Amino acid sequence: MSSITPRYSRITGTGSYLPPNRVSNEALAAQLARDGVETSDDWIVERTGIRARYFAAPDVTSSELAVHAARHALEAAGRTAADIDLIIVATSTPDMVFPSTACILQNKLGAFGAAAFDVQAVCSGFVYGLTIADSMIRSGAATRALVIGAEVFSRILDFKDRTTCVLFGDGAGAVVLEASDQPGILATDLHADGRHVEILCVPGNVSGGQVLGDPLLKMDGQAVFKLAVGVLESAARAVLHKAGRSEADIDWLIPHQANIRIMQSTARKLKLPMDKVVVTVAEHGNTSAASIPLALDVAVRRGQVKRGDTVMLEGVGGGFTWGAVLLDY
Ligand code: UT7
Hints:
The chain is α+β, with helices and mostly antiparallel strands. It contains 10 helices and 15 strands.
C-alpha cells in the first residue's frame, strides 16, 4: 500500500509597508479642531491605546501599499513573483470597483498567470484570505500563495465624526504561504453573522455614475466592542480544540489591532499574559484587513515571533465577521 504524504501550508516569509505620513494624535486633534471637531490625545490613548496612525497620500492606492509589502514578503521567503501561483488580497478599500486589487497588484508585481482575487471580510479579511489559501494549498489547487491585507481606510473616514475618524489608518501586510509536508497552519475557524451588517458599514454604492447613499464609515463602537470580545474568545477556543492544543501552547497571540482594551480582555479570557500579545495598535491605529499581517511582520522582524513558535491570529470586524488561525510559525 502506498502512503500519501500529507500536504500542509506554511508561512515562509512576511512583509509590511506603511505610507510615510505618520499622524500623531496631537496632529490629528489639531487638524480636526480647525473643523470644529473636538478630541484629544488623552481620550484616544485612554479609550483605544492608539497614539498615531499613517495616512497614504491621496493618489496612493491599496495596491500601491500592497506591492511594497508583497515584495518584502517575497524577499523574506527567498522567492520571486514568478514562483507565486495564487494572490489573495483582503481589502475593503479596493483601487477600483473592478477588476480586483489582486489583479492590479499582480500586474505591478509581474506574477502573471497566478490566480488572483480579492476577499471582502473587512477587518477579518486577512484571516479569511489565509484560510482560503491554506485550503487551496492543502487541496493541491495552489502551491505558493501571496496573502495580503491592504487598506487606505483614510479614504472612507468621516473627519466630522470623532467617534470613528481617530481610530483608523492605512497600511499593508503580506505573507508567502507555501505547500509543505510539515504544518504550518494547524487549524482555522471562520464565521459571520449578517444580522449585524449595520453596526459597522460603509452604506454607499456607485450607481449610474453617482454615489448612492453614504460612502463614509459608520460604526456603533459599543455594539462592535461587545460582540468582538465574545467572538474572539470563542474563535480562539475553536481553533485550539481543532488542533488538539491548549491556551498554554500559545507563544504569541496576534489579534486584530482595533483597541488595546479588546486585546486585554481577550488575553484575560485566554489566561495569557499581555507580554504574549503582539500590540501594534499604538503606532498603526486600526488598519482593518492589514492589521494582522502588519503586526505579524513587525513581530517577526523584532525577533519576537520565531520559527517553531505557536501563533494565534484573530480577526473580527464588519459583516459581522470573525475568525482565527492557529499555526506553527
Ligand atoms: O475594526 C473593527 C473592529 N472595531 C472595533 O473593535 C471598535 C470597537 N469599539 C471601540 O473600540 C470603542 O467602542 C470606541 C473606541 C469606538 C469608543 O470607546 P468607548 O469607551 O466605547 O466610548 P463611548 O462610545 O462610550 O464614548 C464615551 C464618550 C462619549 O461622550 P459622553 O456621551 O460620555 O459624553 C463620546 O461622545 O466619549 C465621547 N467620544 C469622544 N471624545 C473625545 C467619542 N469619541 C471621542 C473622541 N474624542 N474621539
